[in-house]
Amino acid sequence: MRTYFYIINVLVSILWLSFIYHHQVKIKPRNSSNIANSTITALGDNQTFILAPYYDPRGPTPIIRVLAIIHHSVRELYCWFHCIHSSSVTVRAQIDLHRDRFEHPYGTADLLCTEPPNCSYHYISAHWSNATNITQLPLFEVRNRPPHTLSVNFTVCISTMYGDYNNVLQTIQSIEMYKLLGAGRVTLYVNKCHENVDKVLQYYVEEGILEVVPWPIDKFLRTSTDWYYNSNSKNQIGYYGQTATLNDCLYRNMYRSKFVFLNDIDEIILPVKLHDWGSLMENLQKKYPESSVFLFENHVFFPSANKSRLNMWTNISGVNILLHTLRKSKVENPFSNNKLLVDPRKVFQTSIHNVLKREGKTTLVTREMAISFHAKNITPHVPKDSLTEDRTLWRFNVSLEQNSNKVIQEVLPIINMSDRV
Fold first, then answer.
1. Of 396, 263, 378, which Cα lies nearest the Cα of 322?
2. Structural domains in the chain?
């Protein structure tokens, strides 16, 4: 009889473990108060800041890719896998510091950790020692495990919004253009913005199109709005950690979105001949079936001196992109200032204007097919004959006007109209 009950207990245990493994049932860890809920978590050595661990099944064996910001001198870090039904297992991480840190002492890094055998887990920790009191370590839930089903075709990843950003009108117009072109999700990293823009963002969050990710990078490091370290040697990381946000957005949407755009809030990948991104990508994939990365020339558009009937939002703070019809005829640095559309399941590391590690080929899309429309509200310091009248955006003016007006009417009563940019 004792043997019978023993066999029953073993069978029940095996079935339970199998259920956990295949269905990924979450079991709350014993030290659940240590679960990290912030976008950025400092490890305590003032040299390592963890963003999130992501399950990465690509390659010969699955790994956990921990996205982090580290000091370039860091040489040793460990992943602690918290096994559900056994003790924790430590694995030394392979540290892969991205090459594009623009000479700043801190940069984006991947901590690559191999999954230990016979360890069913949901949480890991990271530390610079493999012999420490693990009960005090922050717990990070491993994301993308198992991979999700793709829910949208296009996600727009917008890197850090910072300062007292109060460009209400362009924020609305950009998001509405993304929606018109086929975006199913917009993921935006926000360090700081004006309360007016914050209310606009909240509107889109409630609508369901926008995902706002808090990005308090300046609480941990001295940040810079300059590209290179030699511009200000007191800063520790460049451009509010922009490369870290883009890589996190890439992995955050890897198994949620078929394609991912990487750009800023004042930029729109604009089809020239076709009407939306779906048609554009169908065309490009037929021509370049082996490409996983598509580059778009960044074209700066300046406001025209001529006022048009499209200048109907004079009481709203911000830039009206429909008035930006003067384009530079010649693109400066055409091979270093592109914006990206990627298949996120074939990209391992990205920078701002180029992909660092990928599978597949890279294709530069011709300006006859599509461009990156970049509206700058400044007076062009170039000869008039170097500017071309380009009203490609006006193909969308009726829908854009109607949709923007709808949002403006919704948020107008709650924003402070005395603030202008």
1. 396
2. 36-141 (2.60.40), 152-414 (3.90.550)
